Write the structure tokens for this entry.
Amino acid sequence: MTAAQAPATSRPSPAVRRPGLATGRLLRLELRHNAMPWMVPVAVALFWFITYRKSMALPPLWNVRAVTLQSGAVVDFATPVVGAAAWMGSRDGRRHITDLVAVAARPRWARQLATWAATTCWAMVAYLGCAAILYGVTARQAAWGGPLWWPAAVAAASLPAFSALGFAAGWFFPSRFTTPVVAIAAFFVLALTTQPIRGSQSYWQVSPLVAYPWDIGPEPGVATFYRYVPDLSIAQLMLVAGLTMAALGALGLPAGSGDRWLRRSAAAITAAGLLAAGTAVALAGTGRLDAHGMIAIPALHDAAIDHPIRYHPVCSHGPIPVCLNPAYTVYLPAVAAALEPVLSQVARLPGAPVRISQAAATYRQGPGNMVGIEVAGPLLSGRPPVFHLLLPDQLLGPTLTVSQLAAQVRSSAGPDIVAGVIGGGTGGRVSQAQQAVTAALSAAGGDLPGHASRGTSPGRTGAGTPCGQCVANKVSGRLAPGTPVFDAAVRFAALPAAARHAWLAAHLPALRAGRIALAQLP
Amino acid sequence: MNVEISDLTRKFGRTLAVAGVDLQTGPGVFGLLGPNGAGKTSLLRMMATVIPPSSGRLCLLGRDPGSYGPRREIRRRLGYLPQTLGYYPGFTVAEFVEYFALLKETPPARVPAAVAAAVERVELGGQAKAKLRTLSGGMLRRVGIAQAIVSEPELLLLDEPTAGLDPEQRVQFRGLLREIGQRATVVVSTHLVEDIGAACTEVALMDRGKIVFHGTPDELTARGAGYGVGDAPLERGYSAVLAAARS
């Protein structure tokens, strides 16, 4: 073909073309005739059954709810969004309308982007609605803190990526079977991305499903005492943005998508997207579990956010007040009640803590998937001494009910409090007398879960009289029956509380120094 | 000339669908006749810029569609109705026509009036809000014609436009073609010679990828004088030319 010189007919050039208005009209048509609205109820139902109900079963802590939102919403929306986008992407091929749209003046890429944008808009509206409800309910329930936006942003940014990938699959393979195949594939690919995660330096944790160190799960203590570290979120945003760009750019690569400039732009966008996605994966591989339970990526980390969050603790009233982070206000009555029997045993003794104060957990990545979680420093420290309490739901394990949490506090913190007061003897060794007194006080304080009876102190009858057999049962949980230490512990625990307290007040310094022999115990 | 074609060929693998076609035409209604497999649709698809030619020269509306910029300008001024009309079943008549008006980059301010006019011209004003999935085959064909004319094209390419239309609609459609042909070039590919006789000012007959006749309908009719195959004079001319070309 050769170029001709002048138009044969002379129609005046069309009136001013306003691309924005035309694109708006096109988008309106695509929004009206999109497959995604049919999938919105499916996505919302999945969100309700999987994410919302699970979130509501968790403590009303912003961090827990936010990370659950990210992981859950990504799973809930991935399949419907990918499926709907693939259906829309394959529309022209399925409807045998390719010839008709091929002669359109508007570049094919622009038309495709309008269809993709409409699909993504519907998905985004549905997600934002779900997230708003979840955060709204959390705002009403949470005692302290505010919403975490990074996890919500990662989930939101994942939707355009899913939509773009599904749309591209539908466009390049326009068959009615493409939709179910890519929808199912999306689910399994997402699920499989978390399987290879080993430790905190895994490249796979860049998966948008991962909102927290995968080995320890959604930790209530994380991002409560320290600010949320967004390093992993930033890497994930880079990944999903890169995938979005790569998929959308790929649509503009084939001949007929537009002019040379437009196709070069598409190629540049594709390359930039792939680069961003690759960089994100590489960055995620350099992540490490920080001391506060979050993934820090050195290249992205801002050390300025590592300072602890200031808060005014909420405290119980009693001889030894129990103080918790205000986010845990709902647990305060249960925790205080659980510790009260133990605290009453040691209150006003020399060296007893003046306050039980909730502490932040310190996390340490071990080999493989092992993670160590503990309190930094001694449990009992300071002048006057303060006992640092780590709540059980800051540790590994399933979410606890309030009563389960109280029972665990009693069994884990109770003996620690007693041991902190009684001491470990000289040279770090625990004398037999210390063992006996610790066991006796712990038993008297009801540290053994399952042995406590409602309305009565463990080891006592309903009338408050020491019960010898009950005390023996309690002590037998800590010491081997029949040994001199056991006998001494039973004997000491069977004393009236006032007598025990009086003896300890008089002999505690000697007992702590290891100068009291077993036989000297009353 | 709105259409200037010289030595145009198109191959699909080893099959030569269009074999060195020369054609020039200006405003008016141009009929493209020929038996099945003659190459009419391939020629029309090249003229519609759906497929590029294998060789030869193609100039549409004074522009070379081989480059993107001129091709885009041609497409703005082009209307095309393919032989098989695909459609989006969920769209209404008006929405479908509006969609293609927007794809043809019709100025947005003109779109509503252009859509309404196009729908009225194919006698579908009463069904403007009907979903395409509810329409009959003939109505869908008229929707296809409406989308082809919505941007007031300077070059209108119609592949079997009257297939599925009832006699009354075909008569009305011919009137529409004559009206559009007064200011634009309309190329109609059809098997129905009566459409050619009633609406076209020029006609070309294709066979085996080549144009074997180019003239007016009257000239084609004259070729059939004394030839016995065919019920109507134009059909006899059609048959006579084909027989001569194949002999």
Summary: Residues 104 and 111 of chain A are 9 Å apart (CA to CA). Strands of chain A lie at 288-289, 295-296, 314-315, 322-324, 355-358, 361-365, 371-375, 380-381, 386-389. Residues 1-15, 448-465 of chain A have pLDDT under 50 and may be disordered. Chain A touches chain B at residues 1-9, 11, 14-18, 21-22, 25-26, 29, 32-33, 91-92, 95-107, 111, 258-260 (CB under 8 Å).
